[in-house]
Design goal:
Blueprint (H helix, E strand, L loop, with lengths): L6 H50 L2 H9 L4 H18 L3 E5 L5 E6 L1 H10 L1 H10 L1 E3 L3 E2 L5 E11 L2 E11 L4 H48 L13 H51 L4 H28 L7 E4 H12 L8 E4 L3 E4 L1 H18 L6 E8 L2 E8 L27 H11 L3 E8 L2 E9 L2
Parallel strand pairs: 8-10
Antiparallel strand pairs: 1-2, 1-6, 3-5, 4-5, 5-6, 7-9, 10-11, 11-13, 12-13
Helix pairs in contact: 1-6, 6-7, 7-8, 9-10, 10-11
Length: 463
């Protein structure tokens, strides 16, 4: 049922049902009104005809036929008279029945008269009761339609005499053709309407999909406004509003980064002096064990503060406009050499070598964050793997480790600024990495993190 969750299919379904109901609402009354009108006109015509025929038949002749059924000459003469009457009234057959529904005389289609008498016994009895009665439409063996009428013919000494008249009703087949034509036109309109709605709905659903992707990209920090400038409807207004919102978010983010950079710079200068004095104090207290321990603790905390300030600056500072074509393998090796100071027993595996247009120090910082996280989450005996591949103009750098997986419920938050699950740090590592990669025109994603390990992939333009 996912298919009908899409707006285009909902519109098509709604339009199809609307067209179907409209066609049914118009066609069914038209069909039945046309058919009933024709049947009523036929019934009036038959009623007038059988009355005239009844008046034209001499009751003495009928009485004579009943009394002398073996008189073939009289029978033939009367049948010829009925045939002449039949031609005048354009009927299919005329027949006279006795009280036992036995045909005394018939003219025209005698087989049809016999068949009509056989199937219309209830209607014939109704005619004896009411004086005149119509039989429903019926079809002969050839599929031709007929309608019959029966009238009581009163002779004093003979009761129950019935005159039957079968009229050709083949013209009613055109009502069937009308029904088929209505169904064909309705089906055609239905199909054309659904197709038209599916095509026209693209002008609605495609911009909505673009806006949805735009909203997702705002969350990823790399939104490009959708092309909706020509629209003057609600969707265009929504797109313009979302674009303004994205610009305001970007402006506030830049303002926040400027504030962070300004504060970091203000802290950095006195912190540098504190760091120098702490190192001097550390050297001066080498022979005093207790004071030296305190001096080392102060020095470590100042170094931690210095690292935090540097992280703030790395997060807030924009990338230089000048990029260089560098070997990514060289940058990764240099980063690993730096990490070896804190993780001397960890093993690293590197495959591939690609070149990209980068700012070396910035990219080195982003690689450092990923490799450091990998080392912190994995054991020494599990190597950290880095694999580089290229597809057309895009470089893919995969960082894999076999450490503890990232819990699924927080995987969508790991690139947010100041989000951290560690007891130390301010949660800027992956956010800085994402910012640096984005400034290079690339992107980073977490492909998986489970019992098989964790993998981050960076995509960069080839250089």
């Amino acid at each position: 049922m996912r298919l009908f969750n899409r707006l285009a299919w909902k519109l098509a379904l709604f339009t199809g049902l609307l067209i179907l109901l409209t066609v049914l609402a118009l066609s069914i009354p038209v069909y039945w009104l046309t058919r009933n009108t024709l049947e009523d006109q036929l019934a009036d015509h038959l009623s007038n005809n059988i009355t005239n025929i009844s008046d034209a038949i001499d009751p003495d002749l009928i009485r004579f036929i009943i009394e002398y059924p073996e008189s073939q000459i009289l029978r033939d003469s009367l049948e010829n008279s009925l045939t002449d009457i039949l031609q005048n009234y354009s009927a299919g057959s005329i027949y006279i029945l006795d009280s036992d529904n036995i045909i005394l005389l018939s003219a025209g289609n005698k087989l049809n008269a016999l068949y009509s008498t056989f199937i219309h016994q209830p209607e014939i009895e109704k005619a004896r009761t009411t004086g005149i009665w119509f039989a429903p439409l019926y079809n002969d063996e050839s599929g031709n339609s007929f309608k019959s009428i029966y009238k009581l013919y009163e002779i004093d000494e003979y009761s129950g005499i019935i005159i039957g008249l079968d009229a050709d009703a083949r013209f009613l087949k055109y009502t069937g053709m009308l029904r088929q034509r209505i169904l064909f036109i309705g089906s055609s309109v239905l199909i054309i309407g659904v197709i038209a709605v599916m095509i026209l709905s693209q002008t609605l659903t495609q911009p909505l999909r673009n806006l949805t992707e735009f909203a997702r990209n705002i969350g990823r920090g790399r939104a490009k406004p959708p092309i909706l400038q020509k629209r003057r409807d609600e969707i265009g207004f929504l797109g313009k509003t979302m674009e303004e919102m994205q610009q305001e978010i970007a402006q506030r983010e830049n303002e926040n980064k400027e504030l962070i950079a300004s504060v970091a710079h203000e802290i950095r200068n006195p912190l540098a002096g504190m760091q120098v004095n702490a190192e001097l104090l550390l050297e001066a207290t080498q022979n005093q064990k207790e004071l030296h321990s305190y001096s080392r603790a102060v020095t470590n905390e100042i170094n931690n503060l210095s690292n935090i300030v540097e992280n703030f600056l790395a997060y807030a500072r924009p990338i230089d406009a000048t990029l260089e074509s560098q070997s990514l393998r060289t940058i990764i090796n240099e980063t690993i050499d730096t990490l070896k100071r804190d993780f001397p027993n960890h093993q690293f595996s590197i495959s591939g070598d690609e070149r990209a247009l980068i700012h070396p120090n910035k990219i080195r910082h982003s690689f450092f964050n990923l490799l450091k996280n990998a080392c912190e989450s994995s054991r020494e005996q599990n190597p950290v793997n880095v694999a580089m591949t290229r597809n057309n103009d895009t470089i893919f750098i995969a960082f894999q480790n076999r450490g503890e997986p990232i819990p699924p419920q927080i995987q969508s938050q790991i690139f947010e600024a100041f989000f951290s699950t560690k007891g130390s740090g301010v949660g800027l590592g992956l956010s800085i990495t994402k910012s640096i990669v984005g400034q290079h025109g690339g992107k980073i994603r977490l492909t998986h993190s489970d019992t098989d390990g964790t993998e981050f992939v960076i995509e960069l333009p080839a250089g």
